[in-house]
């Protein structure tokens, strides 16, 4: 197995970055990540950034009334004129509704929503099964993915010792995140389904679903084919 093949089997959380990179590359459009928008606004001391910082400093969530205008500001910048990839937002149905309304009001509605379907139990196993090679972080090892299963407790590439990342093993934290993501009533999947329903009713948004189980190469190929 060469390096490219190995990359094909990295855990799901890392995979999203590969899909976005493939789209960025093919369509020459920027990857807009909601976390980076916060950081930029706070660093640059914008009005919205100062308001957001006050909430963050108090340990509160930044309200959508601040987050959504920040996202729209970013999407109006010159590098977004041919399109953009929005990542990390919306995370719940309510945000999806408000984002959709704001984008429509600004005349810049979403074209395509992509749902990468992965069973909750598999998603959790892929996170918890990840093992880090003490010699090289890029050596992929995962006890739940056959293609990159380590050799006992040794790295399958170089034989060095393996360790786990503590947040990968924090099952409560993973469950808490998945509780929000897999919630089809008000959570992140509900946000996706909000757009799925609009698409089904003949709206202007296109809704794509992909099977997230195969390796990066297969899923990327399916994604690019479906976008044609
Ligand atoms: Zn190794």
Describe this structure in words.
The protein is mainly alpha-helical and 228 residues long. The protein has one domain: P-loop containing nucleotide triphosphate hydrolases (Rossmann fold, 3-Layer(aba) Sandwich), CATH 3.40.50.300. Helices cover 49% and strands 11% of the residues. The protein contains 10 helices and 7 strands. It has helices at 3-7, 12-27, 34-43, 47-57, 64-75, 93-105, 120-128, 171-181, 188-200, 216-226, and strands spanning 31-33, 85-87, 112-117, 130-133, 141-142, 162-163, 206-211. The strands form 3 sheets. The chain has a 3-stranded antiparallel beta sheet with strand order 5-4-6. A two-stranded parallel ribbon has the order 1-2. A two-stranded parallel sheet has the order 3-7. Strand 4 (130-133) and strand 5 (141-142) form a beta hairpin. Helix 3 (34-43) packs across helix 5 and helix 5 (64-75) crosses helix 6 (93-105). The longest helix is centred in the N-terminal third of the chain and has 16 residues, at 12-27. The two termini are 30 Å apart. The chain binds zinc ion.
Topology of this protein?
Elements: H1 3-7, H2 12-27, E1 31-33, H3 34-43, H4 47-57, H5 64-75, E2 85-87, H6 93-105, E3 112-117, H7 120-128, E4 130-133, E5 141-142, E6 162-163, H8 171-181, H9 188-200, E7 206-211, H10 216-226
Parallel strand pairs: 1-2, 3-7
Antiparallel strand pairs: 4-5, 4-6
Bound molecules: zinc ion.
Zinc ion is lined by residues 133, 135-136, 139, 155, 157-158, 160.
């Amino acid at each position: 197995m060469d390096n490219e093949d190995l990359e094909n089997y990295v855990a799901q959380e890392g995979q999203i970055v590969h899909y976005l990179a493939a789209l960025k590359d093919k369509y020459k459009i920027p990857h807009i990540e909601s976390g980076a928008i916060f950081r930029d606004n706070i660093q640059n001391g914008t009005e919205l950034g100062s308001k957001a910082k006050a909430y963050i400093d108090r340990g509160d969530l930044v309200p959508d009334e601040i987050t959504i205008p920040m996202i729209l500001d970013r999407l109006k910048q010159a590098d977004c004129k041919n399109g953009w990839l929005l990542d990390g937002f919306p995370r719940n149905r309510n945000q999806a509704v408000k984002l959709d309304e704001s984008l429509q009001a600004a005349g810049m509605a979403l074209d395509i929503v992509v749902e990468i379907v992965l069973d909750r139990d598999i998603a959790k196993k892929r996170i918890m099964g990840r093992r880090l090679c003490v010699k090289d972080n890029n050596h992929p090892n995962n006890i739940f993915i056959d293609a990159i299963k380590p050799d006992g407790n040794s790295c399958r590439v170089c034989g060095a010792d393996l360790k786990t990342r503590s947040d990968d093993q924090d099952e409560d934290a993973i469950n808490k995140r998945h509780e929000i993501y897999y919630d089809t009533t008000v959570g992140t999947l509900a946000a996706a389904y909000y757009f799925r329903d609009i698409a089904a009713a003949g709206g202007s948004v296109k809704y794509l679903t992909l099977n997230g189980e195969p390796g990066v190469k297969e899923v990327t190929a399916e994604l690019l084919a479906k976008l044609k």
